[in-house]
Structures are given as structure tokens and as C-alpha cells.
Amino acid sequence: MGNLNQKTSSKVAGINTKRFIDFKKTLQKYLNTYQIKKIEKAFTFAQAAHKGQKRISGEAFIEHPLSAASYLASLQLDYESIMAAILHDVIEDTEIEKENLKKKFGEKVSDLVDGVSKLDKINFSTKEEADAANLRKMILAMSQDIRVILIKLADRRHNLKTINALSYSRRRKIGKETLEIFAPIALRLGLHTMKIELEDLAFESVHPFRYKVLKDEIDKSRGNRKEIMTKIKKVIEAKLLAEGLKVNVIAREKHVYGIYKKMFQKELKFSDVHDLFGVRITVSSVDDCYRSLGIIHNLYTPMPGKFKDYIAIPKSNGYQSLHTTIFGPHGLPLEFQIRTEEMDFLAQTGIAAHWFYKTKKSSTIQDYTKEQQWITNLLNIQQDSGDPKGYLESIKADLHPGKVYVFTHKGDILELPKRSTIIDFAYAVHTELGNNFHSANVDNKIVSPNFILKNGQKVEIYTKENSFPNPSWLNFVVTEKARHSIRAALRLTQREDAINLGEKLFKNSLIEYEIKLDEIPSKTMKMVLQEYSCSNLEDLFCEIGLGNRIPKLVAMRVAPVNMIKKNVKKKSKEIHIQGTEGLVLSYAKCCYPIPGDSIIGSISQGKGIVVHRQICNSVKHSKKSNEQSIDLVWSENIDDFFSVCIKVEVENKRGVLAQISSIIAKNECNIDSVTYDDTKETGHNIMIFVISVTDLKALSKLMSQLKKNVNVLNVARKRS
């Protein structure tokens, strides 16, 4: 795009004739005469529009869009995409506007060009804000037509290939952006070849010295291992052909950035990286894939835990292949990829294959539903993100997940990022399932909301009417859909919850001054609302409910002077709570109050009321400060689970944790977390459990049963 562009008044530089001829030859392989003429018309227009422009590298400007278009032509993209690629800098770098393109080339082409164009005519306060705005614009355009990102990736690819004309700081920024955003996007769209190319080009831009050193080492290593790879290739080819399999065996090496990332993440030296080379086998059918796998495992010893079946369970971007790592000659690890010819084509071209098959009038490729769902999630991130920095970080986080595969209770496979929790699963199935979450069952065992899922587990979610997301979920969910949905639900409920609680607290505080809400003079109330910057009474209730205003102090402002001088003879009523007050009421982690405990509320700014046990050390000062404390009691017939912390001292014996966990489960209590400490002086172990119980009675029953276990020495509840 405009990264490497520089407008000048020089004469039109000639285009590389051979390259243009080669470009047309590529087009003639899959497009008809009419479509090629349309592309030529676009090229003539772009060449005239960019007349007198050169790139910083010195080459004619038109070379850049031609290169981008040539790459897309190699993927056999449709003619409209090729036209848009040729025209992609016209709106951004010339005086020509979108409407001009629409009249000349149609709405689809003009929309594609506009989707790739930057918002360079708008003034932004920071570079970060501009980057976020441009990314937002591109994602919105992607949601309308995914070809926008294919053009952008082709544009970025050529910019990186010609980036040396820029300053190091500029090269570094573009390279870093590519590694963080554009290369992962290419991967999500199944464009593996482009992803690898972008990564290596970007890595060289960000760390040129590291790239050179590592590339030199790979080149040296290639010479040493060429003989081994040639031998392995011959052995495999001969064996597979002998079994009647029509195969193509290709020895390959890992790309530079892939090796660097492995060294960096695992803190390895280059000499410690043994799997530099691999073998790719393409066969005719799925059946031949599995037959080839069996033959290879008979020839060489497979490495345990290094087999992945992406044919049975494809990746989210549609990628299919069998992966296995074996111990080759001299004990060297060697990765094999086994796939059909069609799978190989899809692995190289990804989403671009959609248009290839479309032009071939084939229904072989599935619709790119998963890609569309992913783009929808990106749009949700836009709606959820307030500041540019947060938005960019959210996008980056979404682009770098590993995968875990779990089953729904109906037996359907669900793909999630690694370290996904129960809550991530619930929202992945349906937003309402997450919003109304009550409990979960994994492999017939009740688990906590923050339970991290593993491959192959079966998950069932139970809902409860009038349930709502817990703000604490935001601390552990990993998917952007879950995060967005939780925040959206919280925004809807928080104000309503705060208003209801605030009204209750305010009315209760007025009792001390023997005055009712409807008895407050309108003039007085108007003055107080103005003083607190509230437009109406609901705003005031909301401020009280959120803890931003202390109800007793507000009551003092509206109470008659003579009643204040009485020094509060009449005490306010206790506030009844039932655990469904929403976001404006939370339970202290220092003492873990549960129904049946004597409780007190502490007003916390921005949080509303924090519930403590009366005996909690944290609220001793609050009791002294009448303004900051609220008298609370539990309502009757509370139907919910509450967290509580217990210490269990046990004998240091094998299997004790399992015994304790079993007792907790049998009492229908969930384990939220457990920490484990050795006591060196006694040789005993201290287990600290945070569990979910219904009330004090249920906790007492559980503790009594734990004490009956022969390995349990003591059970106590955490006080504060």
C-alpha cells in the first residue's frame, strides 16, 4: 500500500515488459478473454492514475500493484480480485475517488479497493489510534467480502520484499505488525505458504542480524544432512510404491522464523534443534494417507505423543493432514506430513481455493463458514473495545491461539483455543448458554467455571433462569467471544442492579431521619442532584448502588436540620440479601461469607457493597465508621452456591487428595481451586480448598465427613 510509496513529478517509468507478459500468461490459464480484457482496462487506468509516481526504491509505482495482482493470479483468484489488486492504491495515493471507480469498474471492484485503502485523509491524535481505525475499517470490509484481506496480504508481501529502501525503524514497525497481525491472519485463512513467506520476510526486517546468522547455520546444516534426507526419501518412495501407492515424496526444511520461534520459546541453542527437516507425502486418497502412515511407522520408530490426525479433526482454517514424528537415522527426529493432493492444494492456498473451485464449477471445497464466524468475532471485538490500544491487543490475542477439541453432550466436536475454560465453551455454543450458566459437568464430574478443558473431554452445561455473568469470569476466559459477551451482558445489568440496590440503601438510610423519599421537597432534591452531577433520581440511585456515594451522607443532605440534630435516634433497618443482587454486590475473599453467617456490608467505590462475615478482621474499622458500613442479613430460601475456604491437614500419603476430592464431590460441592503445601516440621500436608456450597449447614456436614477420613488430621474454615 502506501508504505513504500513516494509521489514525484518524474516521467512515467516503463513497466517490466517480461513481467507483464508472464502476468497475462498466468491469467490465460484460467480466465476467459472477456475477463482478461477487463483486467487490462484496470491496468491501463491504474498506470495513468499513478503517472509520475515512483516508489522510494526508485521503481515505477505501477510495479507494486502489478506484483500484488500477479501473486493473486498465481492463486487463481477471480478477475474482480485481480482488478482490485491492480487498482488498490488508486484511492489512497491519487486524486481519484471511490465513485469514479464504481462508475468505471462496478460496485464490487470499488468496494474491494476502498476496503484495502487506509484512512489517510482523517486526522488522528496518535499513530496507535490511526492503526486501530485502519484495522477496524479493513475488518469491516472483510466481513462484507473476504477478498479484501487477500488483496491486503498480497500488498503486504510485496512491500516486505522491497522494504530495504526504508529506514530501519520503519522496517521494524512494518515487520512487527506483520508478525503480530497479518501472518496470523494468513494462517487463520489457511494460506500456509503466504504465512511462512510473510514471517520470514518480517523476521528479516525486525531482526536482520539474527535472520542472517540463523540462515547461514541452516545452509550449513543443509549440506550435512542432504545425504541423509536423500536416503530417507529413496527408502520411503521405494516402500510406498512397492505397496502399490501412487505417491509424491518431498523433503522440506522448516522456515527460518519457525526455527527461531522454537529456539526462543524453548530456550534452545541452534545445535539443540534437531527437527530442521521434514518429509511431505501426497497421495491419491484418504485411505492411502492412513496406509502410508502405517508403512512409515513400520519403517521407523514413531515418537510417542507426536501424532496428530488433522484429517479426522481438521483445523479451524480447514487444514487437513496427518502429522507424525519418527526417529530417523542416527536418532534424528523427523516430521512427516501425509495428505491427499487436494488437501495439499488447500493447505497452500487456503481460502483462496474457494474461488479456484468456484471457477472450476466444483463443489469439492466446503463453504468457508468457520472463517466467516471468526470474522464475526473480530467485529464483536470492535464493538467491545473502547480504546485503540485495547482493541489492537485484543485482535493480537485472538490471532495467536492453540487449539483444543472437546465434545458437547450431543457428541458434536467443538474447537476452542488452548486453555479455554468451561465459560469459553458455554459462550462458544451459544451466547445465552453462557449468560445463563449455572454449573457444568465434564466427563460426568461437576467442575468449576474456571476449569481448563483438555482434548477429548465431554462437556455438559446447566443453566438457571435469571442467572447472569459473573465479572470474575473476565479474569480467566480466553476467547474474545466470551469476553465480549460477558462485558455486553454486564453493561446491560449493572446499571439496573445498581439502581435497585441504591434505591433500597437510600430509603433505608432515610429511616434514621424519620423521613420518606416522597416527603423530600422537590427543591431540596433538585439541589442535591445538581451537587452530585446527577440528571435524575435514577442516576443518584445508580451512584449509591455502585458505591460512589455513601447512602447515609446523601440522606443527611436531604434530611431536615432538626432531624439531624436529634443525633439519629431511630436506627435503619437491616438490608436483606439473597445472592441475586448482581454486579453491585460481591462477597469478600478474605472471609468468604455464606448463608448462615452473621454478615455486614462495606461500601466500596465502584463495586457497591462487599459482604463480609461479622468476625472478619477486614471490617473492624468499618464497624467503627457508621457511614461506610451497612447492616445486612440473609434472606430466606436462598437457592445458589457460594464460595468458601477450608484448610485440611492430612497425612502425607499417596492418594489422599483424591480421597478428599471424592468426599467433596459426594456432598455435591464444587472445587474452585486447591493449593498444596508440605509441612516439613510435622511431615503433614496442608490442603487449602476453595469450594462452592449452598450454606453453612452444608459446609458443616461436609467438614464433619472430612474429619471421619483416617488420613485427615484437622479441618478448619478460614476466618479472614
Please outline the major beta sheet.
6 strands, mixed
Given as residue ranges, the uncertain stretches (5+ residues, pLDDT < 50) are: 2-14, 120-124, 361-368
Helix/strand/pairing category = alpha+beta
General shape? globular
Fourth-tier CATH superfamily name of the largest domain: Hypothetical protein af1432
Summarize the entry for a quick read.
With 720 residues, the chain is of the alpha+beta class. 48% of the residues lie in helices and 17% in strands.
Walkthrough of the structure:
With 720 residues, the chain is an alpha+beta fold. The chain folds into 4 domains: 2-209, Hypothetical protein af1432 (Orthogonal Bundle); 211-359, Beta Polymerase, domain 2; 487-634, no CATH class; 642-717, ACT domain (Alpha-Beta Plaits), CATH 3.30.70.260. The protein is 48% helix and 17% strand. It is built from 28 helices and 22 strands. Strands 3, 4, 5, 6, 7 and 8 form a 6-stranded mixed β-sheet that branches. Helix 3 (63-74) packs across helix 9 (147-161), helix 7 (107-116) packs antiparallel against helix 8 and helix 11 packs antiparallel against helix 12. The longest helix is centred in the N-terminal third of the chain and has 35 residues, at 208-242. The radius of gyration is 33 Å and the shape is globular. It starts with a strand and ends with a strand.
